[in-house]
Design brief:
Structural class: alpha+beta
Strand content: 25-35%
Number of domains: 2
CATH topology of the largest domain: Phosphoribosyl-aminoimidazole Synthetase, Chain A, domain 2
CATH class of the largest domain: Alpha Beta
CATH superfamily of the largest domain: PurM-like C-terminal domain
Largest sheet: 7 strands, mixed
Order of helices and strands: HEEEEHEHEEEHHEHEHEHEEE
Strand order of the largest sheet: 9-11-8-12-10-13-14
Number of helices: 8
CATH architecture of the largest domain: Alpha-Beta Complex
Distance between the termini: 29 Å
């Protein structure tokens, strides 16, 4: 039997495959939260956090960034949203034979810029080359380690508030504007979320960056991991008009569009205003978008009624992160 994989596989299909792979590999020892953005293990008085990811993008350069920027930011963010202070990253490239040196220098410049901005070094790495035609450009793989006093894995309960740190979908639309050659003022939302997480870490229960599958995937994952429901108020979700217009033009669901510099988090009701105030210092579009409820799954409350906010299914937009 062949595995049914294609570019842009939806959230449910991929999560099912990951569960099968985990079962085949075996137990994760003393590591916890192995189904989260980064895993953690107790070392003395601190937690050690560990994550890895691979990045593909077409095109590799787009308004406001490139594949190198999203690789560096994405791995830093996977550590930050789980409670870590990142210590360092690894950086590995798989190149197609003949990859342009000028393009490589631009990508390395973007990675170096993120490293300098955050103070997080690139500690180790690797390179491989594949024959011409066997790979479209390049793949970047990164891993990251960090430490922290606690993992952000406190259970979410009914009544807890759900907050998003800024407008959604801007990374996807910026990249797709380059791919399909339509005009927009949008730029990728890619950025490290270290500042935001330092500001709110002590006030929240859990956080999730809105990468593959966007806000829909993140909220469904949080709901599933905590065996809760969510009521999300659609009018409160910050979406720029250009994102909505481009999504309609391309037949896409804005809530499923990947971001590379946005997070959703859950906190106790009494902390919600302080969390929102802290996040608005980084992005004025930060918003309380709903709350956790009894039950299962996420429900989207629109201006005309309610609908289930499904975990993305079928083919998502391929090669955007």
């Amino acid at each position: 039997m062949k595995i049914r994989l294609s570019e842009g596989n939806g959230g449910e299909e991929m999560q099912s495959l990951i569960r099968e792979m985990r079962a085949a590999i075996g137990a994760a020892g003393k590591w916890k939260n192995t189904d989260n953005d980064s895993a953690n293990i107790q070392l003395g008085n601190e937690q050690l956090f560990f994550t890895t990811d691979s990045y593909i993008a077409s095109p590799i350069f787009f308004p406001g960034g490139d594949i190198g920027k999203i690789a560096a930011c994405g791995t830093i963010n996977d550590l930050a949203v789980t409670g870590a202070e990142p210590l360092g990253l690894s950086l590995s490239f798989v190149f197609e034979e003949g990859f342009d040196k000028e393009s490589l220098n631009r990508i390395l410049g973007s990675i170096a810029s993120v490293s300098r901005e955050t103070g997080i070094p690139i500690a180790t790495g690797d390179t491989k080359v594949m024959e011409k035609g066997k790979l479209d450009g390049l793949i970047i793989n990164t891993a990251g380690v960090g430490t922290g006093k606690r993992a952000l894995d406190e259970p979410i309960r009914a009544g807890d508030k759900i907050i998003v740190s800024g407008g959604i979908g801007e990374h996807s639309i910026a990249l797709l504007s380059k791919r399909f050659e339509f005009e927009t003022d949008l730029q990728t939302d890619s950025k490290p979320l270290i500042g935001e997480m330092r500001a709110i870490r002590g006030m929240i229960k859990q956080a999730k960056d809105l990468t593959r599958g966007g806000l829909s995937a993140a909220l469904n994952e949080m709901a599933g991991r905590n065996s809760i429901g969510m009521i999300i108020n659609e009018p409160d979700i910050p979406i720029k008009r250009q994102v909505s217009s481009a999504s309609e033009l391309l037949g896409l669901e804005p809530l499923e569009l990947a971001c590379e510099g946005r997070l959703a988090c859950a906190c106790k009701p009494e902390n919600a205003n302080d969390v929102l105030k802290a996040l608005k210092k980084f992005d004025p579009d930060a918003s309380i978008i709903g709350e956790a409820t009894e039950g299962k799954g996420a429900i989207l409350k629109t201006r005309i009624g309610t609908r289930i906010l499904h975990n993305p299914r079928g083919s998502l937009v391929p090669r955007i992160c």
